[in-house]
Amino acid sequence: MIWFTCALLWTLAGSTEIYNNVALQSRSTQSSTDSLSSTINAIDGNLDPNFWQGSCFSTKSQASPWLRVDLLATHEISHIIITNRGDCCANYIDGAELLIGDSLDNNGNNNQKCATVSSIPLGGTQTYNCSNMKGRYVNLILRGKTWYLTLCEIQIYGVPVTEGDRNASTNLALYGRATHSTNVNALSSALNVIDGNTDPIYSQGSCFSSANQFSPWLRVDLLATYEISHIMVTNRGDCCAEYINGVEILVGDSLANNGNNNPRCVQITSIPLSATNTFRCPNMKGRYVNLILRGKTGYLTFCEIQIFGTPVPNDEHYVCLRKDNLALQGRATQSSTFEFLGLGMNAIDGNADPIYASRSCFSSKNELSPWWRVDLLASYKISHIMITNRGDCCAEYINGAEILIGNSLTNNGNNNARCAQITAIPLGTTLTFHCFDMKGRYVNIVLPGKTTYLTFCEVQIYGTPVSECSAC
User: Fold this and answer.
1) Where are the beta strands (DSSP E) in 177-318?
2) What number of helices (H) and strands (E) belong to the chain?
């Protein structure tokens, strides 16, 4: 599997397997989301047990709350490590079942049980051995209880069972990245529409909505060019079915006008409440799939998009090239999050909009030595890094920040070698920093020794893989 070979490397020493935390390359979804948390927090590599720092996950109080991690391929699971909250609520994970399997029946909650979490102390980390159980999905569920499910990190260690290319029956959106013109609040992340959760109830945290604006749009980056056969869109089921009426679905390889100049596959007339409609795009090719409510002031809202197609042979985007922005395939985490508008992942979503209120930027809290980190999922020779500063205010909040590159997570990656120190970046401007093929999996931006905010809007990272793989 080309995407996996580049993203996950493992070695064999005799018959001893060296396992990696495959959760870092995965996708997650959940039964519901507390407005202050995101399920991504549980698989971002940040073990901070303080919920209020934006590094933990919690459902709402509900019957049988659950979280699911999709490893994107079947793995043989050696062990799973769970870090509990440290500020309160240690008992919210008591009795949770840890499940592994390949079935999505009952949202994956019918799969086999690896272990039951009896309890984990405040801020504690516990390891559960799964004896090489096999599965693509790892679930945590508080079965039969009406309660919250909360935790701060889940690490999953294993190796792929088989490898194989994506085919026409694969939902390509699950491997993609999503961004948008705006989103209306913390419940409506663009990631909700490519998480494999077709729950049509907005309040459960499984849907997307833009703000009320002119020509709202959402874009899925498939990370390579595909020949698209068909696209399935699931509408909201609680209200607002008419908000999808007239939306155009576009497919193409251009990012001009945020991808909204690409050819049109279809215009959606309507989709009933909770329904999933299929739209054929015969022989259309593209890396980007956009939905746009063109020329109207309104909301764009729906709950899931599934995209099906096959790779375009010899497509230049289907290999690891220096001109590809590696950050788009990465995972972001941070020392803290100012509030729901300033998530760390905003800085690697391909949206360079410099206005913080558009939900396209990152900001830490006011703290000592704030930092942000992107995990590229493999080691690269980094040629250059481009950073877009905020355009509405606060240009000075990046002054003096260091750009670090390396393979160590000691001190959260902030001990790695320095590529550059940022003197200043003007409001709304993008500057390029040359790193002369420094090697590393992790790229950090840190303001060492200062008590302040760290804020910026986009980071683009360019380089080539350090170790050879079949796609490079």
Assistant:
1) 177-180, 208-209, 213-214, 217-234, 248-252, 264-267, 276-292, 297-298, 301-302, 304-311
2) 1, 33
CA dist 298 and 314 (Å) reads 40
Amino acid at the residue 53: Q
Q: Measure the CA–CA gap between 168 and 342, rounded to whole angstroms.
A: 36
Tell me the HSE value of 79 on the side-chain side, using a 13 A CA sphere: 10
Region(s) of the chain under CATH 2.60.120.260: 2-160, 172-318, 326-465
- Closest residue by Cα to residue 53 from 331, 328, 342: 342
**pLDDT tens, 368-396?**
999 999 999 899 999 999 999 999 999 99
Structure tokens at 46: 């940040």
Q: Report yes or no: 113 and 54 within 8 Å, Cβ to Cβ.
A: no
Rounded Cα distance, 278 and 231, in Å: 6
Q: Which residue has the tokens 């909301």?
A: 299
Is pLDDT above 50 for 443? Answer: yes
Alpha carbon 68 to its chain centroid, in Å, reads: 14
Share of residues in the chain with pLDDT > 90 (%): 72
Quick one: DSSP state of residue 147? E
pTM: 0.72
- Per-residue DSSP letter, 263: P
Please state which CATH number belongs to domain 326-465: 2.60.120.260
Confidence at 263, pLDDT banded by 50, 70, 90: very high
- Tell me the two tokens of residue 113: 């049980």
Distance between terminal CA atoms of the chain?
A: 13
Q: How far apart are CA 366 and CA 124, in angstroms?
A: 26
Q: Are the beta carbons of 234 and 275 closer than 8 angstroms?
A: yes
- What's 2-160's CATH class? mainly beta
C-alpha span between 59 and 333 (Å, rounded): 20
Please provide the DSSP assignment of 410-455 as one string.
GGGGTTSEEEEE-----TT-EEEEEEEEEEEEEEEEE-TT-EE--E
10 bridge partner residues: none
* 189-202 confidence digits (pLDDT tens): 888 999 899 999 99
Residue type present at position 20: N
Q: For residue range 424-433, what is the model confidence (pLDDT) as tens digits?
A: 999 999 999 9
CA proximity to 273, closest of 249, 247, 242, 299? 242
CATH number, domain 172-318: 2.60.120.260
Do 158 and 100 form a contact (C-beta atoms < 8 A)?
Answer: no
Cα–Cα–Cα angle for 390, 391, 396, nearest 5°? 55
